[in-house]
Amino acid sequence: MPRTLGGLCSLTDLRLNSNNFNGELADVVDGLSSCSGGAAFLQVLHLSRNSVTGQLPETIGKLDLLQSLDISDQPLIRADAEDFRWLVQLN
Predict the structure, then answer these.
(1) Is the dihedral of CA 47, 8, 25, 65 positive or negative?
(2) Whole-model pTM?
(3) Does residue 36 form part of some domain?
(4) Which of 30, 45, 65, 84 is deepest in the core (most CB within 10 A)?
(5) pLDDT of 53-89, one tens digit each?
(6) 91 inside domain
(7) 3-class SS at 33?
(8) Close Cβ partners of 25 (under 8 Å, ≥ 6 residues apart)
(9) 15 is a domain residue
């Protein structure tokens, strides 16, 4: 998945389910959270049923308006309860 997603600073909803994407979850999140002031408008991030790998990064906490995160069916993503402390705003 390209870090160039960071150029999509006005994006509010990104649903890339079942697209055979691969790469590090941190690359996606870091790219999206690198906008000036963070990815201030992103509310939905759905990446289920791809081949994304890695740990849920701390930078996900910069996605201040994120309300929905779907990383299901990702056998190579590592996350435990402590990793979700940055996501207090999720429904």
Answers:
(1) negative
(2) 0.76
(3) yes
(4) 45
(5) 888 787 887 888 888 988 888 776 666 666 666 666 6
(6) no
(7) helix
(8) 47, 52, 53, 54, 55, 56, 57, 71, 74, 77
(9) yes
